[in-house]
Amino acid sequence: MLPSVMPMTDNEQVTNTAVTSTEVTSTEMPSAEFACEQTLDASAVFIGLVNPKTPVNVGGIMRASGCYGVDGVFYTGRRYELAARSGAVQYHVDTKDAGERIPLTGVTSLLASIPADTKLICVDLVVGATPLPDFVHPAKAFYVFGPEDGTIGQEIIDKADAVVYVPTVGCMNLAASVNVLLYDRLAKSHREAASLTSSLVPSLSGDALIRQSRDNNNRTRVKVPRAPRKPRHAEASSLKSSKVEPSSSDSSIVITVA
């Protein structure tokens, strides 16, 4: 179900005109104006989308959010809502229905939606940003992504605790960028991720977790390679070429191979 339509703020509107280059500046993040009502654990992940355009991308992001344990997704603008209302069935990408468990909330301001004690991380191709492979993720993070046809506003970047980019040749699709970011967080915090998956699916790990998570028509498995057996004729020839000789040191029998 789509939330009620909310107007965009002036500093979060995005047009289709060319985007001017943005620079990273270092400032302290102000206190959050809006505290998330959810109870925050030691680790918390939120996604913020600046005026997303297509339901396919938002649906893909919701599916990724379910896979990686995201706590909530926020977005600004009306383009997604208008497009989703025009054809909800054909845009159904979240086949795991993560949207039924993870709130997708339309807001007027992403900055005002950041929960208390949570770091603002902007993810975009911004001059001066940190490459994602070098980035250390905070325990509690609110990741903001720009739209498909624009970028994050400078006023949001100026408030960020960190700005990172994925060092690809060319820019990726919005949903793909979110997937890469979330996987990078997972890979860099393997122990925390193990705890996360066990909390999402209690008492499941390894093959049991794979069986729980895979599609119904997936019954593939990795075969353990067996050591090659020596041919019978090779074993017989090896025995024929052996001879028995008495040991010079004692009466034991020594077998040597000719």
Descriptive overview:
The protein is an alpha/beta fold. Helix content is 26%, strand content 16%. The protein has 7 helices and 9 strands; from the N terminus they run E-H-E-H-E-E-E-E-H-E-H-H-H-H-E-E. It has helices spanning 55-68, 79-85, 154-157, 174-188, 190-200, 206-213, 232-240; strands at 44-49, 72-75, 104-106, 119-123, 130-131, 140-145, 162-165, 242-246, 253-257. Helix 1 links the parallel strand 1 and strand 2 (72-75). The longest helix is centred in the C-terminal third of the chain and has 15 residues, at 174-188. Mean pLDDT is 75; it is low at 1-8 and 10-40.
Can you give keywords for this protein?
alpha/beta; seven-stranded parallel sheet; two-stranded antiparallel sheet; 7 helices; about 260 residues; about 15% strand; elongated
Summarize the SSE layout with pairings.
Layout: E1 44-49, H1 55-68, E2 72-75, H2 79-85, E3 104-106, E4 119-123, E5 130-131, E6 140-145, H3 154-157, E7 162-165, H4 174-188, H5 190-200, H6 206-213, H7 232-240, E8 242-246, E9 253-257
Parallel strand pairs: 1-2, 1-6, 2-3, 4-6, 4-7, 5-7
Antiparallel strand pairs: 8-9
Helix pairs in contact: 1-4
Strand order of the largest sheet: 3-2-1-6-4-7-5
Question: Secondary-structure element sequence?
Answer: EHEHEEEEHEHHHHEE
Instruction: Give the biggest sheet.
Output: 7 strands, parallel
Low-confidence stretches: 1-8, 10-40
According to DSSP, the number of beta strands is: 9
Query: What is the 3D form?
Result: elongated
Average predicted confidence as pLDDT: 75
- What is the helix content? 25-40%
Q: Find the structural class using helix and strand composition.
A: alpha/beta
CA-based gyration radius: 28 Å
End-to-end gap: 82 Å
**DSSP strand content:** 15-25%
Please, how many helices? 7
